[in-house]
Write a structure and sequence with these properties.
The chain is built from 4 helices and no strands. By secondary structure, the chain is mainly α. The protein has 2 domains: 34 residues; 44 residues, no CATH class. The protein is extended, with a radius of gyration of 16 Å.
Length: 84
């Protein structure tokens, strides 16, 4: 039974990674093209407001490597007490 659960978790993980990679490949260029920087920031803020607070720190830590160094100040200013 334990092995079956592990297999299912791995399957979900693979499917999710494939979906997110496809989303990044297809949707990210459209978002960058059609939304201003401030509109993109607003979308990120709306997303962060929708997830549990305990998860926000993990999400920001995950995003930190993708944020250009020059934008860290803006992210920190917008995130209040949460630091990157």
């Amino acid at each position: 039974m334990y092995r079956g659960l592990v297999c299912k978790v791995e399957e979900v993980h693979r499917t999710l990674k494939k979906h997110l990679a496809k989303e990044e490949e297809q949707l990210l260029p459209l978002l960058l093209l059609h939304f201003s920087f401030s509109e993109q920031a607003e979308l990120v803020a709306q997303f962060l407001y929708c997830i549990p607070l305990a998860t926000v720190e993990r999400v920001l830590a995950w995003l930190k490597p993708t944020v250009p160094k020059v934008s860290h100040h803006a992210v920190n200013r917008g995130s209040g007490a949460v630091s990157l």
